[in-house]
Amino acid sequence: MVEVEKSRPQILVTGAAGALAQQVIGRLREDCDLVAVDFREQVYLGDDIPSYCIDFNKRSFEDLFRRYQFDGVIHLGRIMSSQLTRMRRYNANVLGTQKLLDLSHKYGIKRMVVLSTFHVYGAVAYNPALIDEEAPLKSAGLSADLIDSVELENLANIYLWRYPDLNITILRPCNIVGPGVRNSISTLLGMERAPVLAGFSPMMQFIHIDDMADAIVLAYNKPQRGIFNVAPQDWVAYQHALKLCGCKRIPIPSIPPILPRLILRTLNLRSFPSYLMHFFKYPVVIDGRAFAREFEFSPRRPLKEIFRFYRENKKPV
Amino acid sequence: MGLASILKSRLIPAELENHINRIRKPIGSLGYDPWGYNNEVMKYGFSLTRQIYEKYFRVEATGVEKIPADGPVLIVPNHSGQLPIDGLLIAYALASRKEKPRIPRAMIERFFPTVPYLGNLLNEFGAVLGDPTNCAKMLANGEAVIVFPEGVRGSGKLYQDRYQLKRFGNGFMHLAMKYKAPIVPVGVVGCEETIPAIANIKPLARFLGIPYAPLAMPLVLPAKVHLNFGDPMVFDDLEIPEEQVTERVEQVKAAISELIDTGLSERKRLF
What we know:
Chain B: This is Acyltransferase family protein. Chain B: Keywords: Acyltransferase, Transferase. Chain B: It holds the Pfam family Acyltransferase. Chain B: One of its GO terms (molecular function) is acyltransferase activity. Chain B: It comes from Marinobacter iranensis. The complex is a heterodimer of chains A (317) and B (271). Chain A has a single domain, classed as 3-Layer(aba) Sandwich (Rossmann fold), CATH 3.40.50.720. Chain A has eleven helices and 13 strands. In chain A, the strands form four sheets. Chain A has a seven-stranded parallel sheet, with helices on both faces. In chain A, strands 7-10 form a two-stranded parallel sheet. In chain A, helix 1 packs across helix 7 and helix 3 packs parallel to helix 5. The mean pLDDT of chain B is 92. Chain B has a single domain, classed as Glycerol-3-phosphate (1)-acyltransferase (3-Layer(aba) Sandwich), CATH 3.40.1130.10. In chain B, strand 3, helix 5 and strand 4 form a beta-alpha-beta unit. In chain B, strands 1-9-6-2-5-3-4 form a seven-stranded mixed sheet, with helices on both faces. Chain B has a two-stranded antiparallel ribbon with strand order 7-8. Chain B is globular, with a radius of gyration of 18 Å. Chain B contains ten helices and nine strands. Chains A and B meet through strand 12 of A and helix 5, strand 4 and helix 6 of B.
């Protein structure tokens, strides 16, 4: 008897120009048919993966859903808070995601993974450690620059409960770092001299980009709806992390609070924007145990290995 | 040999290093736990506190062996003396006990994390922001937690109110019941005399954003401190009305009051 070959799942991956998406694509390309899209640029990912540069808010985006019969969507295309203007970020992250969710519902997508961030919890002095997924998202009230991150989550949440068939899983990772990562914390760790707020060295969590890619693939492969923090069970103080990365620390006066805000606004550093200032002052330590349990995830790259990479790559060739 | 290692060898003798390493704290690969406790910094803190504990306050601790050797436990003392010296001394008494020492976690006022340098330092020594979620997670981790149910009402009281217990919050009892953590009451005598305050300058406290601004001498007096640890009190986790929870809190308060009286009667002189 001839065995009928099981068709390969077709997956849409957004944010294809980012290092994380490329890691995820690398892990899935063998067993899945992938289509890559990015808001920013068209990237070449090999002849087997069609790649597009599309604004999700344009009508032509729907053509992709008509052309390919997607089974799942991995939404990693979130413009980080240090990029573009607030308005453009809102259009891309919130309205763009809404469009993506609408189309996913319309075309019967059966599995969706949405990448969020631990920034949604907000950095305040009264944060307890090991924040659970049920904790309130305070960041919208703290900075207008983080509203789009919270709104993106809210939208995904609404679709999660309203359309259970979409099987949405929202991941809130801690700081993603490692080769190729261009977010603000990775830039800081890679610098020769990095700013710190004098007298403040909050606890932080870091996850290696390879581990994060593993986490996304694990999440995609198990249709378990819900919201999950993703973080290893390891912690380090910010200034200690800088030291281990071989960064010279440049202290910025931290009191009265208006002073560092003024200094940072004047300097306008991409890697240390004033609205992320509190993340370098107060800890936002999340509890990743629920995800680890549910998806049998255990990160394999220890902090020391992560920091060694930054220490040894201070001056890229 | 660098300056740091010379300093370390002076401040942290091998015996102390072994003592701390013997207490296996659940920490990550770089010596930290989620609340910012750091095993290496703790050793310096321990060494410094030993001087303060033995030489300055000449602490006499009775019954520290009553604290269980493992599992979650709430250590509940009276609070006094403007600065959290009482918490520090209780923590040292438990961390330095010969048989089965433990490094307890002290819950501190919400204002400390906003103070540069001090906030981080306290965290590295094991102090934790006094938040119910923190306390719950630590009890779930099987930690020994020092809680002051009087909060700033206790530490900020004036000298004229010394050794009078202020209102206790009920939060610690709910947590003890939920996590089946025994409560060890502690009577602290002597800390009231370390920074006797005659008034609280409220407008100054408001201006500085701190809980209270005591009018006191700008020094810590070397009062002799007595710590009396009571027998562990165990409460079941039945669903009971708040009124009965308050009754249980009153039982703990009465036990502490008794331990304070014992300490006061044992005390021969203030300094």
